[in-house]
Design brief:
Layout lengths: L5 E10 L35 E3 L4 E4 L7 H14 L9 E7 H13 L6 H4 L9 E5 L4 E8 L2 E3 L5 E3 L9 H13 L4 E5 L2 H13 L3 E2 L1 H15 L2 E6 L6 H18 L12 H4 L8 E9 L2 E4 L5 E5 L2 E11 L5 E3 L5 H12 L1 H7 L1 H22 L1 H4 L5 H4 L14 E2 L3 E6 L2 E7 L16 E2 L4 H11 L9 E2 L1
Parallel strand pairs: 1-12, 1-19, 3-17, 13-20
Antiparallel strand pairs: 1-10, 2-3, 4-6, 4-21, 5-6, 5-14, 7-8, 9-11, 11-17, 12-15, 13-14, 15-16, 18-19
Helix pairs in contact: 4-11, 7-11, 10-11
Length: 470
């Protein structure tokens, strides 16, 4: 019988995420435990992410086993019953959190030698920032959005009991706030060594001839070893912070999805490998996240801001690699590369609902936007807040985890007619993107923001927690 000869093809993929300045929480190093508001924040350690980092800095996946939404919800509900109750655990459509009074509560707890309660470290269960209010009359700088009680999920992330969405994290704000004072760009990248990339290019040139399917598949299996471990680097935010880990994990998980190596359980979200139907030459796909808000609105007096939208989108760019392993932008981007970015963006809200790390990425975008606005417009000064504690890493340090240094290259392949099409995982890079351009903001023309601000001002506060109210 005549053996059929196939031509092997590989797309070396560069996955990237570009966002404003961003960041993951780590309170697990004995920082705090217990609290008067249900649970403790020891759940916020490095194990509360979908990555594991060994002593040598090698990053691997720690993904929960598949389970349906109903089962996950029952688990969270059962865990919530065991937690100490507090009024912050009640759902709210628009919870208000005063950042400066939160700092006061944080400082008081630290000075008293008390463990930081979960309601404080998770901002009273706040899950998204929809508004930023400047209230000179009460000397408050307030963020507001939906909130609910939270418990650790299967791998330790603090998520909403009903929604399963991660709560905002105080350490992320402190890290991002300090980062924006000095770093114009925050990022992470996962990059192959140029020499290794050159070796891969040489291997592709020597092994792109027609061959049997077994030989072609063997070629693909050799490629990760040729490319070798890839270097992980984080800039701006500390590499050992929760913020840094969220960025790395989110982009790595996006890469795994594009390769078809992860069951994301989102209907209509196809892998890039599945989208490929023809070979078309070797190139590297560079995908990266950028902020995406449908609406950014500012009141006429500059005292109220409103944010709407899914917070993040994926965009694409192809790259070429020369014989020395040097990368450069390709003059064109193939349709499948662009199509994957578009459909990933379209399904991103569903993905964030299923995979908490992408919701944490959304939270980091919100924190970056808020911190940038506060710095640019001097909003803290307008309410007499010096941000002394949150600006000082000695007074508000984050829990230090292991910093990721390397990750193994990934490969996947499929048959398409008489061709074998494959993808090899490449790198991740995240840079800062402006959110404060004047053209991105709309001026409030009605009374909507005034009404929201009035509600924030008049909201009843509890003496037990004057830093948040509904």
């Amino acid at each position: 019988m005549k053996r059929r000869l196939l031509k092997g093809f590989v797309c070396a993929m560069l996955c990237v995420a570009t966002l404003p300045a961003l960041a993951q929480t780590n309170n697990g190093g004995g920082n705090n435990s217990g609290g008067n508001s249900g649970g403790n924040n020891n759940n916020n350690n490095r194990s509360s992410s979908g990555i594991r980092i060994d002593a040598a800095g090698l990053m691997t996946a720690v993904l929960p086993s598949d389970s349906d939404a109903a089962l996950d919800h029952r688990r969270r509900t059962a865990l919530a019953r065991k937690s100490e109750a507090g009024d912050w655990t009640k759902p709210s459509e628009c919870r208000k959190v005063s950042l400066n009074r939160l700092e006061e509560a944080y400082t008081a707890a630290k000075k008293a030698g008390q463990a930081l309660p979960t309601d404080l470290t998770q901002l009273a269960g706040l899950q998204q920032i929809d508004y930023l209010f400047v209230l000179p009359e009460s000397r408050d700088l307030v963020i507001a959005g939906p909130a609910e009680g939270c418990v650790p999920d299967a791998i330790g992330r603090m998520v909403g009991v009903e929604s399963g969405r991660p709560a905002l994290n105080l350490e992320d704000f402190c890290v991002i706030w300090r980062t924006l004072a000095t770093a114009p760009v925050v990022g992470c990248s996962i990059d192959p060594e140029p020499a290794r990339l050159a070796q891969l290019q040489k291997f592709l040139a020597q092994n792109s001839t027609a061959a049997t399917i077994n030989v072609v598949e063997q070629r693909f299996q050799m490629m990760p070893a040729i490319l070798g471990p890839q270097n992980v680097s984080v800039t701006g935010v500390p590499a050992d912070s929760h913020a840094g880990a969220v960025l790395v994990e989110a982009d790595w998980r996006m890469k795994r999805i594009s390769l078809g190596l992860e069951n994301h359980r989102v209907k209509g979200l196809r892998s890039h490998l599945d989208m490929l139907t023809t070979a078309g030459g070797n190139s590297m796909q560079r995908w990266y996240f950028v902020p995406l808000y449908d609406e950014l609105v500012k009141s006429q007096d500059g005292m109220t801001f409103a944010f709407r939208g899914q917070r993040a989108q994926l965009v694409s760019q192809e790259e070429l690699t020369d014989a020395s392993g040097t990368r450069s932008e390709a003059p064109t981007t193939r349709l499948s590369t662009t199509a994957f970015a578009k459909q990933f963006t379209k399904r991103f809200p569903d993905l964030a609902a299923r995979s908490p790390v992408f919701a944490e990425l959304q939270n980091l975008v919100d924190w970056t936007l808020v911190a940038s606005l506060i710095r640019r417009d001097g909003l803290a000064e307008k309410v007499g807040w010096s941000v002394e504690v949150f600006s000082d890493p000695l007074q508000s340090d984050y829990t230090h985890g292991a910093a990721p240094r390397t990750v193994a290259s990934l490969v996947n392949a499929k048959r398409a007619g008489n061709t074998v099409i494959g993808l090899v995982g490449g790198g991740v890079s995240i840079g800062q993107k402006r959110l404060l351009d004047a053209g991105a903001w709309q001026a409030e023309n009605g009374q909507r923001l005034d009404g929201q601000r009035t509600t924030a001002v008049e909201g009843a506060r509890s003496a037990a927690h004057p830093w948040w109210w509904d």
